[in-house]
């Protein structure tokens, strides 16, 4: 439905009642990322801790959701258990279209349910269902039961947390429709603190379309660009795992807690190896014909006779880096076995893998002992890592409980901060150089997708600080607009500003179409102000020593260049600091 | 005369492009329900997908059940729909043995018209228009009859 305001469902989890609010601001913040920050400013409490019942967990979609291909993502916004500051995390699956067809631009969960519960919403439905019997169940078990308990098969989205989220872990993600995730910055912990095991979104509404042929004609043109050209071939063919071999060749793939950036044994975990030996099939987010989801299998022999069960496990570059190269595991099926446990526990895979890589090196160096790790962690030993993932999810002892709050938290207590691979949060799988390290360390989401810092490293050998930071700022604003539509960032090569303007115009958002630059800047500023208001100080971010010990294709990392980038990027971020109330900016 | 078939649905990735195309191009709606083909997982996403669509019965139970003639037998299979005489009783949907007819909240039924407009939007070529004879010129799908 095209409207010049946001239709927001606010659910009070304490009472199980909700209300629909028509919130103005469409032309200022668009939706998605902009709307998440806007609603946090309205409903969030900057000065209260992340687990205060008043803190909202927000799910927001955008003005183009459902209207065009790959406009298929949802933004989750919340105060993070990882750093107790404003955070964003993005996921696809069916979540975006389900919210659209539930006739909601956003959903805001406030308060705390009195006991473990599931929130169920639809275009004509709101229910808070007590589900204590699901508490403790893993992602697969709870998913199966939730599918049976609620209607809407095929046209609904089922979000749920696993044991890690129930433990309020800062590394807990929110699983979306089995194969996608709001992975980073502890969204699962935020839901766990609210006693919310699951959110079921039933997309049972429909809307009339604009009259005339302009819309179907433009849809057809966009669809053709996305499917009939080679622009999306990378995601359609091997998927993001194509990066594994490429980055290894470029000395940019983190190995064994970033002790190396390339390794000859990469062949066991390349995208090609996965596709040839472990790929079962592909799947797609609703509204996306690309189908980038690659699903492999994890098989377990449970009797001495040839008796097996198997699970289907999605894989991408980041999960392969986190549980493969970063842990020294070089067999694709061993990677899938670890990934399967990570999935069942409801952990963010990048955080978990990188944290366990640090724990392994800490054990090697004698900084911690097996009294802490409970296991003889060793690079390459996947069976031990499967058990360690469970310890991390359940918080098996003080060590794992602290580690689950963030690697640097554990390092602050035990030592070993120099080799903690943390850039704002546990690193993503790109050791490309100074610009990427800076972009993740200071990026709003601490995500490799905040801006294309890794691409900048790969294409620029100069050390022009001003030019690099200009690029980061500009690219971030552009991506912030895309994630306010809410586009999958894999389509960023297709949805340029001109095409986005055409799309907005044809569906009836003409005023936004003509004002993209200003709105992008506004969203960028609002997000940063929200982050800064909740306590972020970019000038206090430190990049651990390990990142300066790395050799990339560009050579040894230049500490001075890195420090200059960090200082300049921090300064530029601080220029956006709020004068007073961020909601008034 | 051609009918819509789903001979390669094992390839389905669950993108819903077919349903969205039907709703967009045939019914002028943004919807994954108001469509003649609807995709659901067959017992969870790990088990693949199935399509809810008209199988082009040659003695269509929905047409037989329709009390007003809004649904009538189509040559080659399926039904011809005249929305202007539909009283939204829902008997068609109840009569369909394979749940191919969607009733919107007002009782308005949506069924596949075998027009083939969804076919080009399937990225994995799951769908196919199949010639079954019945009078239409070869190679041309009958125009959808969906009189308001």
Task: Describe the protein.
The complex is a heterodimer of chains A (585) and B (148). Chain A has 585 residues and is α+β, with helices and mostly antiparallel strands. Chain A is built from 24 helices and 20 strands. A six-stranded mixed beta sheet of chain A has the order 2-1-6-3-4-5. Chain B has a single domain (2-147), classed as Alpha-Beta Plaits. Chain B is built from three helices and ten strands; from the N terminus they run βαβββαββαββββ. Chain B has helices spanning 17-25, 61-65, 91-95; strands at 2-5, 29-30, 37-41, 49-53, 71-73, 79-82, 102-103, 109-110, 128-131, 146-147. Chain B has a three-stranded mixed beta sheet with strand order 5-6-10. Chain B has a two-stranded antiparallel sheet with strand order 1-9. A two-stranded antiparallel ribbon of chain B has the order 3-4. The radius of gyration of chain B is 15 Å and the shape is globular. The model of chain B is unreliable at 135-143 (pLDDT under 50). β13 (207-208) of chain A pairs antiparallel with β2 (29-30) of chain B, so a sheet runs across the interface.
Structural class determined from secondary elements of chain B = alpha+beta
Which stretches of chain A are poorly predicted, pLDDT < 50 over at least 5 residues?
none
Shape assignment of chain A: globular
What is the 3D shape of chain B? globular
- CATH fold group of the largest domain in chain A: Aldehyde Ferredoxin Oxidoreductase,  A, domain 1
The CATH top-level class label of chain B: Alpha Beta
Structural class of chain A: alpha+beta
> What do the pLDDT scores of chain A average to?
96
Strand content of chain B: 15-25%
Q: Write down the Rg of chain A.
A: 22 Å
């Amino acid at each position: 439905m095209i409207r010049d305001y946001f239709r927001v469902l606010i659910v009070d989890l304490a009472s199980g009642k909700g209300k629909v609010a028509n919130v103005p601001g469409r032309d200022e913040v668009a939706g998605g990322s902009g709307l998440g920050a806007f609603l946090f400013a309205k409903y969030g409490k900057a000065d209260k801790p992340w687990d205060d019942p008043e803190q909202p967990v927000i799910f927001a979609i955008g003005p183009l959701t459902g209207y065009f291909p790959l406009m298929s993502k949802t933004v989750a916004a919340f105060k993070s258990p990882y750093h107790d500051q404003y955070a964003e995390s993005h996921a696809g699956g069916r979540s975006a279209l389900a919210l659209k067809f539930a006739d909601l631009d956003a959903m805001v969960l406030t308060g705390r349910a009195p006991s473990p519960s599931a929130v169920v919403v639809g275009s004509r439905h709101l229910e808070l269902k007590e589900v204590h019997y699901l508490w403790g169940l893993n992602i697969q078990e709870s998913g199966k039961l939730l599918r049976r308990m609620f209607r809407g098969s095929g046209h609904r989205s089922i979000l749920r947390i696993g044991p890690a989220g129930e433990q309020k872990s800062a590394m807990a993600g929110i699983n979306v429709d089995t194969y996608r995730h709001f992975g980073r910055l502890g969204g699962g912990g935020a839901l766990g603190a609210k006693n919310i095991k699951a959110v079921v979104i039933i997309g049972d509404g429909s809307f009339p379309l604009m009259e005339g042929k302009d819309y179907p004609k433009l849809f057809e043109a966009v669809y053709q660009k996305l499917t009939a050209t080679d622009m999306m071939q990378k995601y359609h063919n091997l998927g993001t795992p194509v990066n594994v071999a490429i980055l290894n060749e470029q000395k940019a793939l983190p190995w064994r807690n970033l002790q190396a950036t390339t390794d000859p044994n990469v062949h066991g975990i390349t995208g090609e190896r996965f596709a040839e030996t472990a790929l079962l099939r592909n799947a797609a987010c609703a509204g996306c014909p690309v189908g980038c989801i690659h699903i492999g299998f994890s098989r377990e022999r449970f009797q001495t006779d040839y008796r097996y069960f198997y699970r289907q496990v999605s894989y991408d570059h980041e999960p392969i880096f986190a549980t493969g190269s970063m842990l020294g595991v070089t067999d694709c099926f061993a990677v899938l076995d670890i990934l399967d446990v990570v999935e069942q526990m409801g952990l963010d895979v990048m955080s978990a893998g990188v944290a366990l890589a640090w724990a392994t090196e800490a054990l090697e160096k004698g900084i911690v002992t097996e009294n802490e790790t409970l296991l003889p962690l060793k690079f390459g030993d996947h069976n031990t890592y499967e058990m360690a993932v469970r310890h991390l999810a359940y918080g098996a002892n003080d060590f794992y409980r602290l580690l689950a709050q963030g690697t640097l938290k554990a390092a602050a207590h035990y030592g070993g901060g120099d080799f903690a691979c943390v850039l704002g949060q546990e690193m993503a799988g790109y050791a490309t150089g100074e610009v990427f390290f800076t972009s993740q360390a200071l990026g709003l989401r601490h995500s490799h997708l905040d801006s294309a810092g890794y691409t900048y490293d790969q294409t620029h050998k100069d050390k022009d600080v001003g030019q690099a930071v200009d690029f980061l700022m500009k690219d971030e604003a552009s991506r912030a607009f895309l994630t306010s539509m809410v586009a999958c960032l894999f389509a960023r090569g297709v949805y340029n500003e001109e095409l986005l303007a055409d799309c907005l115009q044809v569906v009836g958002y003409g005023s936004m179409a003509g004002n993209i630059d200003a709105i992008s800047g506004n969203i960028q500023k609002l997000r940063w102000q929200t982050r800064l208001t909740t306590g972020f100080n970019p000038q206090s971010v430190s990049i651990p020593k390990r990142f300066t010990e790395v050799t990339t294709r560009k050579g040894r990392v230049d500490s001075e260049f890195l420090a200059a980038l960090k200082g300049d990027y921090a300064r530029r971020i601080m220029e956006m600091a709020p004068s007073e109330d961020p909601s008034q900016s | 005369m051609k009918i819509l078939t789903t001979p390669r649905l094992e390839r389905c990735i669950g993108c819903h492009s077919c349903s969205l195309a039907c709703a967009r191009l045939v019914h002028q709606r943004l919807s994954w329900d108001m469509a003649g083909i609807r995709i659901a997982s067959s017992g969870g996403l790990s088990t693949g997908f199935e399509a809810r669509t008209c199988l082009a019965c040659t003695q269509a139970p929905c047409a037989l059940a329709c009390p007003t003639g809004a649904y009538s037998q189509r040559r080659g299979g399926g039904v011809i729909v005249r929305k202007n005489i539909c009283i939204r009783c829902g008997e068609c949907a109840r009569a369909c043995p394979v749940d191919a007819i969607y009733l919107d909240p007002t009782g308005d039924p949506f069924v596949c018209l075998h027009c083939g407009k969804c076919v080009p939007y399937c990225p994995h070529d799951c769908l196919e228009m199949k010639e079954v004879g019945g009078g239409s010129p070869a190679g041309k799908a009958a125009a959808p009859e969906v009189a308001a």
